[in-house]
Structure formats: structure tokens, C-alpha cells
Write a structure and sequence with these properties.
Strand content: 25-35%
Strand order of the largest sheet: 6-9-10-3-11-12
Helix content: 25-40%
Number of strands: 14
CATH class of the largest domain: Alpha Beta
Structural class: alpha/beta
CATH topology of the largest domain: Rossmann fold
Number of helices: 8
Shape: globular
Distance between the termini: 32 Å
Number of domains: 2
Radius of gyration: 19 Å
Order of helices and strands: EEEHEEHEHEEHHEHEHEEHEE
CATH architecture of the largest domain: 3-Layer(aba) Sandwich
């Protein structure tokens, strides 16, 4: 296997007396989709926010492209090439697609905005992802379907030469056709060489696009295994009980937050 783009090694995180993450190791590889799965309260959101630079670590290493890095906040993570698409998408309904994709990072020419360049780059990015469901990059986001909104949010994340994209429940509340569009886009991101992290409760989606599955149980990594070596029932057991056959946490009884 190639060297990971991103590694978290031995990460611990507590909030007061509550120990949320216990010696977590997590890796993201180029050209692969890594599914991060776990029940509510397993620590997925905390781990994602540590990767995103929103939370600091109590201990452990943050390694990017083989080098230890110091992360002070989200700007440091974005500079590395890590983008996060949260479940609420963080899109502004009163703006169009171009304005949303460049929000906070607008291109300028003199004292004004360089609308021509931004529009061209938005079109190029959507085309590079083989997005054909958006009629115009000047279409208002408020008029888009759920699948189209998710597509715009993902395109916004990869616009900035990203190396890693984290997707938080990207198919939640989407219909069948829209889910198909988003999953195809997730796979295309990995095929372009990006490292993709898919956070999802939907095991059907996970097994369709994931190359690796990392299962969290009460803040511990229960398994980090190629998807082809796991079954649906094994993943469910890892999520709900921390163990499945020979896989999982050795002493589940001690695995408490």
C-alpha cells in the first residue's frame, strides 16, 4: 500500500471528565475512499473536527504526507489541502453557484471581483468532476435539488487543489437518483487520486464506494480493514458491540468512554 496522505497516530481527546477518543489511529490513502463508521457517540464527529482543525488533540500525532505537522486551526488544515463538506453543506441560498464556490476566497481584479475568472473556474471544476446535472453556474443555490446542492458543496471543496475531502453523511435525506449521483461523484474523486473520507450510517452506500472501512466503538478503533474483507453483518457487529469474531477490541468490557 502507498504511503498515507494523512495519519492520526495515538490520538486522545477528552472534554472535562469524558474521554471521547482513546489512542485512535486513522489513515487516509490517495485514490481510496475510507469509510468512517460508528454508532452515535462513537467519536466520529470529534475525530473529523480534529482532522479539520476545529478541535485540538490532547495527545497524538497529526502526520500529513509523511511529515509531522502542527495544526492551530481550520486555516492550517485548508492550507494542507484538506477540505470538509459538513452535513448542513454551509451553502448560502441567496447566492448563486459561483458565489458559493468562491465565498470567502473571491478572485479580484483591481478593486472589483473577477467574475469572468471565477465563473470559468467553477465551470472547469464541475466539468472535471463530470457533473452534468447543473444547467448554469449562475443558477441560484435555493433552486437546486438536494443532490445538486451536495454536488456544488463537493465541487467547492475540490476547487482549491484539495488532496483530501471529508464528506459527512453526503447522501442523508436524498432520493434514490440523487444518491446515485453523489456516490458516483465520490468514486470519481478517488479515481482522480484524492483521499476521500466518507462518514455514513448507510452500509449500502459504504460497501458500494469504500475501499477501506474504519469502525469506531466508544471512542476506540474496533477495526481498520479493506472493505472487501468485511461483510455487512460484521460491520454492524463492530459498530454495535466493538467486536465481530476475531476482529475488534480485545476486551470490550473495558471499552467505556
Amino acid at each position: 500500500m502507498t504511503q498515507p496522505l494523512l495519519e492520526l497516530r495515538g490520538v486522545n481527546k477528552s472534554f472535562g471528565a469524558v474521554h471521547v477518543l482513546h489512542d485512535v489511529d486513522f489513515a487516509v490513502y490517495p485514490g481510496q475512499v475510507t469509510a468512517l463508521v460508528g454508532d452515535n457517540g462513537a467519536g466520529k464527529s470529534t475525530l473529523v473536527k480534529i482532522i479539520a482543525g476545529i478541535y485540538g488533540r490532547d495527545s497524538g500525532d497529526y502526520v500529513f504526507d509523511g511529515q509531522d505537522v502542527t495544526v492551530h486551526g481550520p486555516r492550517d488544515v485548508a492550507a494542507l489541502g484538506v477540505e470538509v463538506v459538513y452535513q448542513d453543506l454551509a451553502l448560502c441560498d441567496n447566492l448563486d453557484i459561483v458565489e458559493n464556490m468562491f465565498l470567502g476566497r473571491e478572485e479580484t481584479r483591481g478593486i472589483g471581483l473577477d467574475e469572468v475568472t471565477m465563473e470559468a473556474r467553477a465551470r472547469e471544476t464541475l466539468a472535471s468532476l463530470s457533473v452534468r446535472t447543473v444547467k448554469s453556474v449562475r443558477q441560484g443555490v435555493a433552486s437546486l435539488s438536494g443532490g445538486q446542492r451536495q454536488t456544488v458543496a463537493i465541487a467547492k471543496a475540490v476547487l482549491w487543489n484539495s488532496k483530501i475531502v471529508l464528506l459527512d453523511e453526503p447522501t442523508a435525506a436524498l432520493g434514490v437518483a440523487q444518491t446515485r449521483q453523489v456516490l458516483d461523484l465520490v468514486r470519481r474523486l478517488a479515481d482522480r487520486g484524492l483521499g476521500v473520507v466518507l462518514i455514513s450510517h448507510n452500509m449500502t452506500d459504504v460497501f458500494e464506494v469504500a475501499d477501506r472501512i474504519t469502525a469506531l466503538y466508544l471512542g476506540r478503533v474496533a477495526a481498520d480493514v479493506p472493505a472487501k474483507d468485511l461483510t455487512h453483518s460484521q460491520v454492524v457487529e463492530l459498530i454495535t458491540a466493538g467486536r465481530s469474531g476475531d476482529l475488534g477490541i480485545t476486551n470490550v468490557a473495558t471499552a467505556t468512554i
